[in-house]
Automatic annotation (TrEMBL):
This is Amino acid carrier protein. Keywords: Cell membrane, Membrane, Symport, Transmembrane, Transmembrane helix, Transport. InterPro entries: Na/Ala_symport. The keyword Chaperone does not apply. GO terms for cellular component: plasma membrane.
Length: 461
């Protein structure tokens, strides 16, 4: 436990503290010091890809949605990665950021999405370049474990230590996330419907088991679930925004004022505003953690850069669209109704204000769908990591699925802080190991981008 706590503190604790005016300070964790400079570096190296090639991201998404017998389509890979991004970070994560950092934290989440989009492009493109055939499920597999292997140990018959550590960190992280998702579901269903956690958890585990224990049911279910639930959440939010349109100038003014405002500096809170928005933005969009490349590698696509553009768009969808939706729901609610509330209580109170009892029920149901999709998505990610560590064995694949289902059940009944921290440590270690490969291998992804722009993009009119 002491070793575990030391690793947690190293990854997430404030390693460097910068004094700010007004008695505030800006604490920088190891992950922030890795991911923010990486985002800046890759944004510069891709020549501001998120802004310059946004129309191309949309065009590639619309033109790569045909299903194929040789693997996932590009859009299916995007849906799988979106299933994992669109989860706790979009609901409870945004609530936590605003609770701790105020409205200004939303601005810094937007900034992290713009920077993270370039990082997502690099890692997804590398996953495509180094993917390999999947003899168990068909199609392809890959991700950071595979391009780390190519970097450190090109011989096929031996495993790389660093690649193995990444794969193990991912499996640990996703077990922790399984526990977190089910706990949030049981809590929200108890608040909304007064259903005991045991019953809602059993229902969740049974539904998840039926899907993940079948060979290739996960992608078929996510193909339907993710677009529907994301669209429902988006349009409900648009209704709330239109209904409260006169308040929007004040909300945006508050976001920008609190992101840079003198009141936060004078009150000693500007550091909390910046860091809560930054940390939650990194947690939500997952860019740099090495998760989404596990889906990107599975797509059958005619150019590696297309997979990168699809995943870069996924960061936009997650943070600039869906996280902003959650933020608007809360910031358009009178402050006197939400003062002192946190987590799901805050979000459900805001939804009750906007939509009455329907709002409370809707947010409970949408959280159930978001969390189930997250669980299904991480089990898809786990396929390639399990195969890297244990080889092409159905027994190993089945054993990990059963372990994840057990964690899903345990998490629904009680919140164990150790397991929550286990997920944070897992994703932190994944990020560190993934970044070890991204910088030396980035020239390959950048060369792929140049080739795509020169030979594959339609001529400008």
């Amino acid at each position: 436990m002491a070793l575990f706590q030391a690793i947690y503190t190293l990854l997430w604790g404030d390693l460097v503290t910068i004094p700010l005016p007004g008695g505030s300070s800006l604490g920088l964790s190891l992950l922030v010091m890795i991911l923010v400079p990486a985002g800046l570096y890759f944004t510069l190296r891709t020549r501001f890809l998120p802004f310059r090639l946004f129309p191309e991201m949309v065009r590639v998404t619309l033109s790569n949605n045909k299903k194929t017998e040789h693997g996932l389509s590009g859009v299916q890979a995007l849906i799988v990665s979106t299933a994992c991004r669109v989860g706790m970070g979009n609901l409870v994560g945004v609530v936590a950021a605003i609770s701790a950092g105020g409205a200004g934290a939303v601005f810094w989440m937007w900034i992290m999405a713009l920077l993270g989009s370039s990082t997502a492009f690099i890692e997804a493109t590398l996953a495509q370049i180094y993917k390999e055939k999947d003899p168990l499920y068909g199609g392809y597999r890959g991700g950071p474990a595979y391009y780390l292997h190519a970097l450190f140990h090109p011989q096929k018959h031996r495993r790389s230590v660093v690649a193995s550590l990444f794969a193990l960190s991912g499996l640990i992280c996703w077990c922790g996330i399984s526990q977190v998702t089910s706990n949030s579901i049981s809590a929200s269903f108890e608040n909304a419907f007064h259903i005991p956690p045991l019953y809602s958890t059993i229902a969740l585990v049974l539904v998840a088991a039926v899907i993940v224990l079948r060979k290739n049911a996960t992608v078929r279910v996510l193909d339907i679930m993710v677009p529907v639930m994301a669209a429902c959440y988006f349009f409900i939010t648009v209704f709330i925004i239109v209904k409260n349109a006169p308040l929007l100038p004040g909300v945006f003014g508050r976001i920008f004022a609190e992101a840079f405002g003198l009141r936060q500096v004078a009150g000693g809170g500007i550091g909390a505003v910046i860091m809560n928005g930054t940390k939650r933005g990194l947690f939500s969009n997952e860019a740099g953690s090495g998760s989404a490349p596990c889906a990107a590698a599975a797509s059958h696509i005619d150019h590696p850069a297309k997979a990168g553009l699809l995943q870069a768009l996924g960061v936009f969808i997650d943070t600039l669209v869906l996280c902003s939706c959650s933020a608007m729901i809360m910031l358009l609610t009178p402050a006197e109704l939400t003062n002192g509330l946190q987590g799901m209580d805050l979000l459900q109170t805001a939804m009750h204000y906007h939509l009455g009892e329907f709002g409370v029920v809707f947010i409970a149901v949408i959280l159930w769908l978001f969390s189930l999709s997250t669980f299904l998505g991480i089990l898809f990610y786990a396929r390639s990591n399990v195969a890297y560590l244990f080889g092409d064995r159905w027994g190993a694949q089945l054993a990990y699925k059963i372990l994840a289902l057990v964690m899903l059940f345990v998490g629904g009944l009680a919140a164990y802080q150790f397991v929550w921290d286990l997920g944070d440590v897992g994703v932190g270690l994944m990020t560190v190991f993934n970044m070890i490969a991204l910088f030396p291998l980035a020239p390959k992804a950048l060369a792929s981008l140049r080739d795509y722009e020169e030979n594959c993009m339609p001529p400008k009119s």
